[in-house]
Amino acid sequence: MSRIFVAGLGAVSPAGWNVAALRGALEKGEPLPTQTVVRPGWTKTLPVRLVPPPATKLEFLAHPRLRRSSPITHYAAAATLEALAGLRGKPAAKHFRLGVIACLQSGCVQYSCRFYDETLKNPATASPLVFPETVHAAPTSHVVALLENVALAYSLVGDPAIFLQGVALGAQWLAENRVDACLVFGAEETNWIVADAFRHLDRRAIVTGGAGAVCLCRDQNLSIGIELAAITDAQPFSARQNPLQAAQAMRAQLGKNSAGELLCDGTGVSPRADATENAAWRDWSGDRIRSKAIWGEGLMAGAAWQCVAAGDALAQKKFSAANVSLVGSTQQAIGAKFVRADFDLSAGAPMGNIPS
Amino acid sequence: MLFPLKPLPAAPPRVVITGAGIITALGRGWKLNTQGFREGRRAFRPVTHFDVSRQRVKIAAEVDLPEILPATKLTPRQLARLDGAGKMLLLAAHEAWLQSGWTAAENIPLVLGTTAGGMTLGEAYYRQAIHQPGQHRQQATRAIQYQAQVQARAVFDALGFSGPTTILSNACASGGNAIGHAFELIRSGQAERVVAGGYDALGELVFSGFDSLQALSPTTCRPFDAHRDGLALGEGAAILNLETLAHAQRRGAEILGEVTGYATAIDQHHLTQPHPQGNTTLQVMQQACANAWVTAEEIDYLNAHGTGTVLNDASEALAISEWAGTRAATLPVSSTKASIGHLLGGAGAVEAVVCLMTLREQWLPPEMEFETPDPACRFPIVHQMQDARVNLVLSNSFGFGGVNASLIFRRWA
Questions:
Q1: Which residues in chain B land under pLDDT 50?
Q2: What is the Cα Rg of chain B in Å?
Q3: Which residues of chain A have pLDDT under 50?
Q4: Residue A346: what pLDDT?
């Protein structure tokens, strides 16, 4: 059996431009501040959580490929670079072949709106510089150009629960030795149309943008002491299986929790949206991060942050194992378990060669 | 469980195709398309789906959808919610499903490629939000239905199966990648059968985008012609039902062809332009052949990505010429985008079905408007109807962002 480890984590969120900022927000336990965006034709504004401007200049923006890129690319680039930083500092990883798996739900909405608006006004003057940035594969392409040594890259779209399918695909590429490390990122950006669409679907949801990244590797010595233990099947919503049944099937596959385990779920937005996931985890008695209560509805970025938060809690040695529960909005439910690589869950004691 | 991974099979199973569905501007279904592609018929007409009066180019290969969709398990309400892209996807999936003779089951993965999903619904959402900001009717439905995974779910519900859905959006390589990914799911033992394909509908945003890039041909789309001046857009969908050879034989299924090789890689040169020397294209063609245990000498026909743009075709021609070596002089190549336009996320899947047609029926699809070869082409372009002995074909798909994919198919005889 192939063992897969986490080599690094990265996050750009409304809390700031790194994992530490996300951790700080979760430790504080209070909802992040909201801002507003203007919806054309309305006097009323829509609440959102926006990524704050970076504290320092983003050096990667000097790369020629990123000059005209959209915010989603900036978020994805910053998160992936943070996730890769540890690996890049290690000589053993110098010539690694990288895989990149991008996961998106809304994708590049800012430039899509801008380009379509230009088209409606006068297609003859719609900008050829903006159009390519509307493509789902654009952030992936820019990140790949920035990282350079990328052997394989896929862009996946779907509801947020596909993020863990992306992680499973990365594990597969590693197991088949097609890449030496694999970055899986989820990214979104926010504008009025995303906020408006969500207002139709769930009035309590406050949408947010950003990116989260997980870097996977095969070598425990290159890891940050976290191992991927399990990813459930993707449990689809269909005529044969409603979302609650799918979430329960996911929950059942993750098994009963032991002492010292964390659950990082996707609840905290609104009772209606949370009902399914809460029902599936009704028996959970351990610690729990209700992530969306803090950062809001981050779509695919939110799914990635859940994994980052779970991994970071293990890296900080606060827990021995962390479960991630992703119950999507339209597609499927899926879950995962990450463990401390030095921790034997069955014995409840450290076992590896990494000091605890 | 998706992880821990299932152990790799000692010998990867052979992957065969037992169902194929296709809808393009040439028509709906295998028969109409095979007639059209064999004759090199061109299916372009003035765009009717949206206003092109202020666009530079005004034609595309539009699909005429039937007024009544085939009877499936979808409710009238679900049917009413489908947009053009969703209907094309459903029609292709239905044809493939019937042909393969599969019955309702759990855990059949669905792998789709698309660039836009239900973008026309997204466009409608935007127009209403801007022009009628106080009017919210239909907006919630549009916000849900424009998402590709919701269109995929309609396929599940219509045909009565379910399983994990993977939607690849590697721009215009998506359809090829979807079939390749499905092939790999089966080869690695993760699935015994997979429904895979690609689709995209013509939309105003995308049409305007390609027009703004001046990538659309103002005359005639002529891939690999020295006087080519751009691509033409089209729309459509294609689905292949893939399964292990053992599974197909166990149930006595008719086998349409075999997928034997796949490779994908990413060109880091530019967001919208291929590497001028076609480095990554060369790499994926070589890798796909290596994976299939075949050489360029054995390939009987190459279905090129061949968009008709100056840059794509020059780069691809160099790569094909280098990859094929001495075989190039006699290797028949053509791009079926000359007939049906560029189907973006649907292109690779539709072209896979065209490859299957050539293998099944032993002919080559011509580019009837082709006149003068680009000097970079060291290979003959098929430009007349012709029968041929075809046992192995290679199909290329490339996308904005740099993803390249090559697939190899073998005749089943």
A1: none
A2: 20
A3: 349-356
A4: 56
State which H helix or E strand residue A28 sits in: helix A19-28
pTM for the predicted model, two decimal places: 0.97
Q: What burial class does residue B12 get, using C-beta atoms within 10 Å of its C-beta: 0-12 exposed, 13-18 middle, 19+ buried?
A: middle
**B199, amino acid identity:** Y
Closest chain B residue to the Cα of A143, Cα to Cα: B268
**Structure-block tokens of residue B413:** 């005889």
What distance separates the 2 farthest-apart alpha carbons in chain A?
68
DSSP A80-143: HHHHHHHHHT-GGGTTPPEEEEEEESS-SHHHHHHHHHHHHH-GGG--TTTGGGGSTHHHHHHH
Please give the distance of CA B298 from its chain centroid, rounded to a whole number: 23
Which residue type sits at A203?
R
The Cα–Cα gap between B281 and B397 comes to 9
- Give B-chain residues touching A234 at CB under 8 angstroms: 2, 164-165
User: B208 by DSSP, 3-state: which?
Assistant: helix
Peptide bond into A71 cis (omega under 30): no
Q: How far apart are CA B218 and CA B227, in angstroms?
A: 12
Of the candidates A135, A200, A234, the beta carbon closest to that of B2 is on A234
Note the pLDDT tens digit of each residue in A221-259. 999 999 999 999 999 998 889 999 999 999 999 988 888
Look at residue A339 and give its three-state secondary structure: strand
**How far is it, in rounded angstroms, from Cα B340 to Cα A329?**
36
Inter-chain CB proximity B115 and A154 less than 8 Å: no
pLDDT in tens, A300-349: 999 999 999 999 999 999 999 999 999 999 999 999 999 999 866 555 54
Q: Which of B275, B342, B355, B383 is catalytic?
A: B342
Phi, psi of A309 (to 5 degrees): -65, -40
CB contact under 8 A, A135 and B56: no
Give which of A129, A156, A121, A125 is closest to A140, Cα–Cα: A156
Burial of B68 (0-12, 13-18, 19+ CB in 10 A): exposed
Q: Do A115 and B208 count as a contact with CB atoms less than 8 A apart?
A: yes
CA dist., res. B28 & res. B134, Å (int) = 40
pLDDT for res A269: 79
* DSSP assignment of A55-76: SS--GGGGSGGGTT--HHHHHH
**Distance of alpha carbon A292 from alpha carbon A274, whole angstroms:** 10
Task: Give the residue among B340, B331, B329 at the shortest CA–CA distance from B388.
Answer: B331
Phi, psi (degrees; rounded to nearest 5) at A151: -90, -35
Find the residue in A nearest to B137 (Cα). Answer: A200
Of A138, A156, A196, the CB nearest to B168: A156
Contact residues, B window 58-97, toward A, CB-based 8 Å cutoff = 73
Burial readout B239-264 (b: 16 or more C-beta within 10 A, e: otherwise): bbbbbbbebbeeeebeebbbbbbbbb
Strands (E) across A179-249 are located at 181-188, 207-208, 210-217, 226-231, 235-236
Q: What percent of chain A has pLDDT over 70?
A: 96
Decide: B265 and B404 in contact? Cβ < 8 Å: yes
Q: Are strands A349-350 and A332-340 parallel, antiparallel or unpaired?
A: unpaired
pLDDT for A79? 98
What is the predicted pLDDT for the residue at A352?
36
Query: Which pLDDT score is estimated for A354?
Result: 32
Distance (Å) from the C-alpha of residue B396 to the closest C-alpha of chain A? 17
Hunting for tokens 């939000």 — which residue is that? B129
Extract the tokens encoding B258.
């075999």
CA distance A64 to A70: 13
